[in-house]
Specification:
It comes from Phytohabitans maris. This protein is of the alpha/beta class. It has 15 helices and 13 strands. Helix 6 packs across helix 13. The chain starts with a helix and ends in a 15-residue tail after the last helix.
């Protein structure tokens, strides 16, 4: 492939210029990531907080996740979708969990699950892309090119393995100006139609007189091949001590496998063996429930419940897992009133789950009113940056305002002083 064609491909694929930051992310394989544990100081790693960020893509229906079963306005607004009080897993006299979430109910009873109520941001945007960009950049006022974790990587001059994503592409959350997190694929390399591994290898070769941005983007293609080889090697050597439970995909209880559960199992192994990563990012999609919501939403919540409760139980058994905080969020909630297709449309505020062995469980903030609405939507009662600011301060030992564009976060007592 000649240099001109190569440059056109780089430009067309969006990896030159602003996109080069994400495309130039470090590539790590499973085995390589686990190997970083051998190089990390054991005592220091054991005392380091771990933050696991779970993104629910599509806009989770918060009202059918944390259910206001004590409010008749909930039943009036969505008569076909509402859960009757006897079905709800009650948390107190007004709110309860979806019946598909017994694992999280157990964590609640053990005071290891915190639920932040009515979380959102000023002037909500109902676009999936813009709203997710706001959450991941922590910048409601306008678009920025970095994520709040990426800025933390910049500020601490961190190694790529300090923040790791187990998603198919690196989320903007982990992209900084000078540093990015690492992207670890658990499913191998999947190329677009018409692109072969040989072509990818050619794209990864250096070219004379190319700009630093183009060179960095090209190196990312070479990294993709390296990652794919390392993942395949890890899969073939699943009998290696420490890898067998990573490669096994836990069952969801619905006849399939849960990618989220597998990714959290991998994170658990990384934490247990002392990998120095401090921030992990995983995700679960499918929450854009515009029609026939009940069955699909229940399936997703069951999958989420089993993955999170299993991970939390595993972390509670080990010393390394005691400093783990899991934050679960979605880009927005859904409209209060159901639509004509037995689904819900894009809304605004919703609940955020925070869990872990050292998390102080309970409700945080105030449940939004179902009578005082903003054009049919819930009014946010908590700014999402208060949660991320708390994670920065309590888990990453960082100054929140430095990485939240000057926002002075209210630090929530999610992690009691030790």
């Amino acid at each position: 492939m000649d240099a001109l064609t190569r440059r056109k491909f780089l430009l067309a694929s969006g990896v030159v210029g602003g996109g080069a930051i994400v495309a130039g992310a470090a590539g790590l394989g499973i085995a390589e990531l686990l190997d970083t544990a051998a190089k990390a100081p054991k005592e220091e790693t054991a005392k380091t907080g771990k933050l696991v960020i779970v993104t629910l893509y599509g806009g989770n229906d918060g009202l059918n996740t944390v259910i206001p079963y004590g409010d008749q306005r909930y039943y009036a607004a969505r008569p076909e979708l509402a859960y009757q009080p006897e079905k709800v897993l009650r948390l107190d006299g007004a709110l309860g969990l979806n019946p598909m979430m017994p694992g999280l109910k157990r964590l609640w009873d053990e005071k290891r699950l915190a639920i932040a109520l009515g979380v959102g941001y000023p002037k909500p945007d109902r676009s999936h892309f813009r709203s997710m960009d706001i959450w991941q950049s922590a910048s409601p006022s306008g678009p920025v090119e970095t994520g709040w974790v990426g800025r933390w990587l910049d500020g601490t001059n961190a190694a790529p393995e300090a923040a790791v994503s187990f998603e198919s592409v690196l989320p903007p959350l982990l992209a900084g100006e000078t540093r990015t997190g690492a992207c670890v694929s658990t499913g191998g390399l999947r190329l677009p139609d018409g692109l072969t591994t040989d072509m990818l290898a050619q794209l990864g070769r250096s070219q004379p007189e190319e700009s630093p941005a183009q060179a960095r983007a090209a190196a990312a293609y070479a990294d993709l091949i390296k990652v794919d080889q390392l993942v395949k090697h890890a899969e073939q050597t699943a009998s290696t001590p420490g890898l067998e439970d990573v490669m096994e995909l836990p069952a969801t209880g619905t006849g399939g496998s849960s990618t989220l559960a597998a990714e959290l199992s991998l994170i658990a192994k990384c934490i247990e063996v002392g990998v120095p990563t401090q921030v992990y990012s995983v995700s679960l999609g499918g929450f854009d429930t515009h029609a026939e919501e009940r069955a699909g939403h229940e399936r997703l919540l069951r999958q989420l419940d089993q993955a999170l409760s299993g991970f939390a139980t595993r972390m509670a058994r080990t010393e390394a897992g005691q400093r783990v905080m899991v934050v679960v969020y979605s880009e927005f909630g859904r409209r209060v009133r159901a639509n004509a297709s037995d689904g819900t449309d894009h809304g605004t505020a919703g609940p955020v789950f925070v869990l872990g062995p050292s998390v102080a469980g309970g409700f945080y903030g105030e449940q939004p009113s179902l009578s005082d609405l903003d054009d049919g939507d819930l009014k946010a009662t908590m700014d999402f940056r208060d949660i991320f600011g708390t994670a920065l301060a309590a888990v990453l030992d960082a100054e929140p305002a430095r990485y939240l564009h000057g926002y002075e976060a209210e630090i929530l007592p999610l992690i009691p002083p030790s």
